[in-house]
Structure prediction request, 308 residues.
Amino acid sequence: MELNNLARSVVLGVSNNTVVHSFATKYGLSLGAGRFVAGETLETAIEAVKTLNSKGISATLDHLGESVPSKKLAAGASQECLYLIDAIERTGVDCNASLKLTQMGLDIDQEFCKENVEQIVQRASEKNNFVRIDIEDSPRIDATIEIFKYLKEKYPDNVGLALQSYLYRTLEDMKRLAYLKPNYRFVKGAYKEPKEVAYPQKQDVDENLKRIIGIHLKEGNYTAVASHDENIINFTKDFVKKNNIPKTQYEFQMLYGICQGLQEQLAQEGYKVRIYVPYGKDWYPYFSRRLAERPANIMFIMKNMFKH
Prediction:
């Protein structure tokens, strides 16, 4: 556990280095980042979704980007999400959308961000689709929840939220939002957070994840269990069986390019499986977090670097 924490800290620290960022952006996809990112265009991402659908697996598309510095860039990202939702309808793929609020201008102007996201959720409502708001680092959570509440009350069937089990506050956030009957994606969390706000030990993160999954399922809410951890997956399988939770109330979610055998196995067992499929030119921050999560991912990239 200490080794994993050290590797995580090193990778997240190095990821901000401009030289590393420049090198990775230029060569990363060919050196192995393409395992985790479905290319730089919407067209390549749609083809990846079609491949998943052919195996009985659903998807959620995310045009990568975060912490944009201008309203112009945020408006462009919002427009890309509208294209994305239209492309899903046009191609008939089994897919919904995910987005980050900092890509929509949250750090610039919260009201501007809300307007950008609302037009995306409204479009999803018109197309009978769904948008997942990703949760980001702890300083942005209150604003994220405020925007989610507004959209959930206006478009109850078309917007959901991700929550992180490594944060102490998550259970209280769930209690405050319970009246909305939210659709949550539960994740462990991939940002570097201080011990004052997040559990530093994996065991505590895992136990809290089990706790919030169980609470949400028992309350009758749709639950997306986003984990590659077979202990968490097996816990969910046992919990839904013991509590007679129908399969229509939950799904398993995983990341593109990770544990593909397990993804297909769960789908073959009759479980709903959805894969998070990221694409776009601004893929480096996302990729850095995937490396930080598991030292094995770092070794995968290094092997490809030596091959080249």
Q: What stands out?
A: Confidence is low (pLDDT under 50) at residues 10-15, 299-308. The first strand starts at residue 58 and ends at 63. The CA atoms of residues 181 and 219 lie 8 Å apart.
